[in-house]
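Run folding on both entries below.
>entry_1
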Amino acid sequence: MTTKPSVGIIMGSQSDWPTLKYSANILDEFDVTYETKIVSAHRTPDRLWEYGKSAVNRGLKVIIAGAGGAAHLPGMMASK
């Protein structure tokens, strides 16, 4: 049986993974289930907001958000 992830790790693009993978490594150490997704605050804002709106219903308790540059992703996620 597959366990629903309790943590979402979202990033603005694949190039952010080398930084965010450290979060995934710590979650692995504690056997915390997680999912990863690319949701750009600038290129796919509707996908970002849909991800946030559906998070609780999908079982997520925490969202870790990170992006390069100005990093609008965490702020936009928190705004919803």
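>entry_2
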Amino acid sequence: MMMNHRISDSEIQYLLDHLDALYSGTSLRQYLSLNNQENLFVPLSDKPFDPERVITIDEIPVLFPCSDKQKWYSEDGNRILFHHDILKSAFYLLSGYQEYHFCEPDLYGRFPWKSSIQYSLGITQKPVVNYYFELILDAFERFSQLNGLEFKRKTRDAPTLFLSHDVDRIKKYTLRNLGISVFQLLGIKPGSLGSTDQLKMIGDYTKGILSFRKDPYWNFQEMVTLENELKISSTWYFLEKTKMNNSRYHFRNLQIRDLISYLTDLGHEIGIHGTHESSEDQHAMNGGIHGLNAVCKSPVTGIRQHFLKFGNPATSRIQVNAGLEYDATLGFAEQIGFRNSYAYPFRLYDFENRKPMDIWQLPLNVMEATFMEYLKIPPASIPETMQPLLDEVIRFNGVFSLLWHNCRLDEEWSPGINNLYRCLLNEIMKSGFISLTGQQTINLFKSDGA
């Protein structure tokens, strides 16, 4: 993860491609100077990343400092001179560099949060690349004023809520689930619950089965009714049943086909929730997409990988070859925040072909399971824990990606969870967010020239 070389021309062009979507007028490419101190000068560092050398200016880390100056840039006549390599800093975070060079995934094949630079620098909940880009645009705007050049920022009207649901489970009260819980209690199968909670789960399953109680996982009408009330359009990612631990339903099931039609007719987007196998197997990916397309009214264009299992670059290449347009996987399961330190859709960098990947990333900021399973935060504390993240998204009129599984609105297991969920969505929309599906969000940013 050292990056002990100067940023290359193709890596610089990758960054400028993302910056192009944020302004209009004279091109920064014409005046960016890298080798001599003229026009808008940015020094290039050939030093490796070293946490001990990182400095902070106005609460923003400088990953590759080039001087002792405690300011990003200075004016000198009609020139703007940066004092640190802001380009390499931005590239390191945005491109996926740290994941491309990382070889120790967690138990589920994921890049661990605690192995990330975001964790080590304490910046997981700050979209640092947005701050870098804002600094670059501030500098170029001033340079344009000094030199009589045309420059105009592209401003976004409002932040965007991208609400999504991974449909992992559709039935709770089954003999299979009851049996698994019994085996987990006896230690025959691995489980994450303590004995007290496991007994509670067994009792819940037993009562639900014997009393023919309404299944809390089949709650799609209630979820959609709430979203319609709040003028929210969401994206639903469906997961095929395979021999591995994926879903327990097939796309071809009449109940699932009817559900997909119901959601589509109401204006929601249908995407694919890629199976465990699909993140590293092209045949599995193609088969899943073919099966889902067979029951959808239009071809699926978006994906989120099950368990957030993603390998860089292997998974991206599989997704591209399958014809997908965007991926909504990139978030940390263990922590909320910005996995690539950016609050807008973006493209990863293809290190082998030295160009942007041919698929968009719509990064995941918050998954409800992060609070419940990893952080062990009481439901009542979720809003205040999430608020700093929302504030950062609002600051840049960025995209807030919220994942809430349909099976995580179970009142028996989490009393009051539906009211909390309603209040969360209501407060987000009252904060001035617009709601878009995943594909709509990508289309919006593409229309800005991204």
